[in-house]
Write a structure and sequence with these properties.
- This protein has 151 residues and is mainly α.
- It has helices spanning 7-37, 43-64, 70-105, 110-145.
- It contains 4 helices and no strands.
- 83% of the residues lie in helices and 0% in strands.
- The chain has one domain.
Length: 151
């Protein structure tokens, strides 16, 4: 625990984790399934992904800024590290979708293959998202207690 903690400092330390949780809830739990249910198509994946990447970019930008308090800076850094986990999930899903596209293009039943493999491709992001929810919940509790995360 650090010295001179005010409620404002604790609130600022919680901000990166709250933003990341909003990103996960809004763009992964709500927007993407809604777009699938509404049969929007490829845009249903691209728009939530782009919006999520904006949140991730902002987190990366803020984590590089010099904060006035060590606790605030440490929690922006921790949120940035957690975004890397989400980006790995995006990468794995992208590779699976790329392979699905190649397989679908070379198969007589390409559309069926693409539908089946696209459903499988979503699984890494869902698993990583659940992991990120747990990590961010823990980090949010740490920030609320005024604890600096261990390296």
């Amino acid at each position: 625990m650090t010295d001179n903690l005010t409620p404002d400092i604790i609130k600022q330390a919680k901000t990166p984790h709250e933003l990341f949780m909003i990103n996960l809830a809004l763009f992964h739990l709500l927007a993407t399934p809604a777009s699938i249910a509404l049969d929007i198509g490829l845009w249903g994946f691209i728009v939530p992904l782009a919006c999520s990447l904006v949140f991730i970019g902002y987190t990366g930008y803020r984590s590089q800024q010099h904060e006035r308090h060590e606790l605030i800076h440490a929690h922006w850094q921790l949120a940035r590290k957690h975004t890397y986990i989400l980006l790995i999930g995006y990468g794995i899903t992208g590779v699976i979708l790329l392979l699905a596209t190649v397989i679908a293009a070379s198969s007589a039943m390409g559309h069926i293959m693409m539908v089946a493999l696209s459903r499988v491709a979503v699984v890494p992001v869902v698993l990583v998202m659940l992991i990120c929810f747990v990590l961010e919940s823990s980090a949010l509790a740490q920030a609320a207690q005024g604890n600096i995360p261990k390296k």
